[in-house]
Design a protein that fits this description.
Blueprint: E1 11-14, E2 18-22, E3 28-32, E4 36-41, H1 44-50, E5 56-57, H2 58-65, H3 73-82, E6 86-88, H4 93-107, E7 115-119, H5 145-161, E8 166-172, H6 180-197, E9 200-207, H7 214-222, E10 227-232, H8 237-243, H9 253-265, E11 269-276, H10 284-294, E12 298-303, H11 309-312, H12 318-334, E13 338-340, H13 344-352, E14 364-368, E15 373-374, H14 393-398, H15 403-419, H16 433-438, H17 449-459, H18 464-468
Parallel strand pairs: 7-8, 7-14, 8-9, 9-10, 10-11, 11-12, 12-13
Antiparallel strand pairs: 1-5, 1-6, 2-3, 3-4, 14-15
Helix pairs in contact: 2-3, 4-15, 5-6, 10-12, 12-17, 13-17
Cofactor: [4Fe-4S] cluster
InterPro entries: Aldolase_TIM, rSAM, rSAM_sf, Sulphatase_maturase_rSAM
GO molecular function, one term: iron-sulfur cluster binding
């Protein structure tokens, strides 16, 4: 970060969004509820910040701070100013908020897409209870490699033009291995083009791992250097089999774990995805223990979100969500397992300053076989989309002429701007846009303020590598 020198005649004060947390006798952590920038300081930072309890001149404050600071006091104050921990004394909360939203909106006017998801299959071999794909009528087809190739032909020039140096391609379905031949061809096309355009590319496959044959395991093994596989598994056997069932209503745990062992044996990077609900809440630690024995080194946990009244009865309460995350985080830490999830966007982005919104639509685009473009796979089959793919799509989105993208961001920023007229105008109420959508709320509403604030209280005290290492970020 480039340190900024405050204007000499300007008085500074502590940001109204400042959070200061003393961890122990040697460490204090500081971040902004608006700009993030989580930073660890020694305990002298408390005395430095106290100098700005009332408006103060930076130069005069640095002279005082130099009497007790171990490091250069002027550089420290410049750092505090650059990270928005200190702000101009004449700016109030609403002015800072509006300025921040305006800057981020300008920054995201032209999206820099670095994550592209192909919904390669319109079929699934399971009948999981409460699957979000059943919420809406997703009328797509099996994706062809020819159609994906058209998207790729525009994608790579777009990446080069916008100085995007790395790309993540994800394959989802329903179940992507049900269209294995097309997925392989798309993979080969991407590899060829990434070499041609010098774009570092990796691949993620999200699978239920229910029906994998010898050829699939062999293909995974041949491509382990670029692949990562994420397998869905909702807890220990008795919990998983209450929800993740086949079309005969039979549990899937044993068959999935058998295939999971084989995937791990290939040496590919493999993690598991669990959806937390009342069905598996009581056995979180046991599940993590079982995953450790299998050799899993990363667990992603998302929150179950139901649509019907019966499905919503499976949802965890706010207190249960907090408890579940703490328990899983600590159980995973015991085994040296990385732990993340959708819910962590709010935490990571709030304390690192990753511009308050998930990648959906801004860093990530999802393509279905019928040509419809979505900001997130969960919106497949809904009116929340960027229209149908045409050959000039990448050109339009590079030149701010994509109406779907403009509507998406306008809705987001319009709602955020409205916050400046209310109390509690920080960004702690971020929620996954899909959750807001199915609750028929504005996608920028403070739907999960209490949940996120309690998460922040927990994570601000955690080891830094447990907060941000390989976590979802914008």
């Amino acid at each position: 970060m480039t340190l900024q020198t405050p204007p000499p005649a300007v008085l500074l004060k502590k940001s109204p969004f400042l959070v200061v947390k003393q961890i122990d006798d040697t460490e204090v952590r500081v971040y902004s509820r608006m700009h993030g920038n989580l930073t660890a300081f020694d305990v002298d930072i408390q005395k430095v910040l106290k100098l700005f309890d009332t408006p103060a001149n930076a130069e005069n404050a640095a002279k005082i701070a130099s009497q007790f600071c171990k490091n250069d006091a002027s550089d420290l104050i410049r750092e505090l100013y650059a990270k928005h921990f200190l702000v101009e004394a004449n700016k109030d909360e609403k002015a800072i908020f509006s300025e921040y939203i305006s800057a981020v909106r300008h920054k995201n006017r032209i999206p820099k897409v670095s994550k592209v998801t192909f919904l390669v299959s319109d079929e699934c071999n399971l009948a999981c209870k409460g699957c979000y794909h059943t919420f809406y009528d997703f009328k797509s087809t099996q994706m062809s490699s020819d159609f994906a190739g058209q998207i790729l032909e525009g994608l790579f020039p777009y990446l080069k033009k916008n100085a995007v140096s790395s790309l993540v391609i994800s394959f989802l379905g329903y179940e992507p291995f049900l269209n294995f031949e097309a997925m392989k061809r798309i993979y080969d096309q991407v590899c060829s083009m990434s070499d041609r355009y010098d774009i570092k590319t990796s691949f993620h496959i999200f699978t239920n791992a229910f029906s994998l044959d010898e050829s699939m395991h062999a293909w995974i093994e041949r491509n382990i250097s670029k692949l990562a596989v994420k397998v869905s598994l909702d807890g220990i056997k008795e919990d998983n089999d209450k929800r993740r069932v086949d079309f005969a209503g039979k549990g899937t745990y044993e068959r999935v774990v058998k295939n999971l062992r084989r995937i791990l044996a290939t040496g590919v990077k493999c993690s598991v995805l669990i959806v937390l609900s009342k069905l598996n809440f009581s056995n979180i630690e046991k599940f993590v223990d079982e995953m450790d024995v299998l050799g899993i080194r990363q667990i992603t946990a998302n929150m179950f979100c139901g649509q019907s009244r019966d499905e919503r009865m499976m949802e965890l309460t706010t207190s249960e969500k907090i408890e579940a995350i703490k328990r899983m985080d600590q159980a995973a830490e015991k085994h040296g397992i990385r732990f993340d999830g959708e819910w962590k966007y709010a935490v990571v982005q709030m304390i690192t300053g990753a511009h308050f919104t998930c990648p959906a639509g801004i860093k990530q685009l999802v393509f279905s076989a019928d040509g419809v473009i979505y900001p997130c796979q969960r919106f497949a089959g809904t009116p929340i989309n960027f229209g149908t793919y045409t050959k000039d799509f990448w050109e339009k989105i590079s030149e701010d002429r994509c109406e779907g993208y403009r509507r998406w961001t306008a809705d987001l920023y319009r709602g955020l701007t409205e916050r400046s007229k209310t109390e509690n105008i920080d960004l702690a109420g971020w929620s996954c846009p899909f959750l807001l959508f199915i609750r028929e709320e504005c996608i920028s509403k403070h739907l999960e303020r209490e949940f996120n604030e309690r998460l922040l209280e927990y994570y601000i005290t955690r080891p830094l590598d447990r907060i941000i290492a390989e976590s979802p970020r914008n």
